Amino acid sequence: MSFEEIERRIRIYQHQHKKIFATSSFQTQSVALLHIISRIDKSIPIYFINTGYLFPETIEYKDLLVEKFGINVIDLKPTVPKILQRDANGNLLFASDPDYCCYLNKVQPLDAVLAEHDVWINGVRADQSKERSELYVEDFAPHNVIRFHPMLYWTKQMVYQYIREHNLPRHPLDEKGYISIGCEPCTARISLDDYERAGRWKGLKKNECGLNTELVVKK
Amino acid sequence: MKILVTGGAGYIGTELIRQLALNPNVEQIVLYDNLSRSNYNIFLHSGIKRGKVTFIKGELLDSRLLKQVVKNADIVFHLAARVSTPMTNESSHLFEQVNHWGTAELVYAVEESTVKKLIYLSSASVYGASPDEADINTPPNPQTFYSISKYRGEQHVARLIKHMPAYIIRCGNVYGYGVSMRFDAVINRFMFDASFTKRIHIYGDGTQRRSFIYIDKITDILTNLVFSELPAGTYNAVDRVLSILDIANEINSLYPDMEMLYINQHMKMRELVVKPSPELLALLSLPPTSFRDELLVMMHRFHNSTAY
Asked: What is the pLDDT of residues B72-91, one digit of tens each?
């Protein structure tokens, strides 16, 4: 979708008085969509899911983009305290059950946000994973919400071209070899030969946190 | 002024709370601790009157409780940590859990509050080991589970330095008599052994130097930091650099009949020589003391145990 097409679609949702929100993980790949949203309507709430396990650099980058773009970012934190997120051995869940850790820290808090909105703008791209390639530009989410994926058919190259054209800042860990950045315990540096999301849950078959699997309704 | 001290029942926390409790400008002190070391001395032997100081038994990872406690504070001292005990090799995850992620939770709670000052007690061990002196600009190179996790905690606090008076205090090895004192670090252990068993154990050839600070001095600096206008930032709290043999010889002069047992005396052990931050040490309001004076206080306490 071009900028004009994305803008038109958002304007139609607004014309229909739909309650719109976006989510962002605030990494370099996210900056293009955040910039596009800021050009269309800075008041659209953008939920930043702070799991408690993020790199401090991610929070600094978020603060920088809020200041630079004037976007309306809302911090979303898990409701289950970390003390209750330990396994039978006393370890935090990311050390034994990353799926449940993602559920408590990402899926569960966002599910409550979904229930209060009509349209979720989500920046996934088809070239990122098999699960994402199976999504549609408009798709179904729980609570009768529409998932809107404006970047679905953008490629990595298109995102980086947009970043260069608009001279947008990059995540501070970008230059240290982190390409796809999520929670610190489950994010690794990758080499040039690896695919983009190889550093996420490295060594596990898991490659999605649940936002793009559990919060999709397959029809 | 309301002050929260995480790890308030620990070695430094106990002495800090004793000092803060004496200050008329301090209206309330909340001691937040999980009592993981089962050290109850602050409740029994500190002379602290109940009322001004209140106790909340809690964990750093109890995000909900921590947030409620932080909300009511003006100043937060973050001293709570899982500390390293020599000769044990616990899971790296446990250090990360408390010192890294626990600190992250505290930072988030502070960020959402009206707290005016955050003071995080880190460790000079973040510099790693080197015979060369490390100053505040030396890039950290932590080598142990403990120091790695403390340094990762620092990185969360460092984010706040740009926005509020937040301080990272890299503290040397603390020694000296205290109500909740620990005996797992060299000087206190040597003094205990010299006094009660008359034999100290020296690992390696004893020439290795380490960086220290006296308990009364770190307590005084931290207390004065509450009321100071020192710019936010990272500082080294180190008072003396001493070799293990320097320490042993000084103690030997106090206990002439003690013995020194060398273990692995063919080995050169790792060193940590840290340059103090003069701006931080300028906050000291105590009269200067010699190392011998400080040991004499401990010796006196060991020989004159008091009881009610």
From this structure: 999 999 999 998 765 455 68
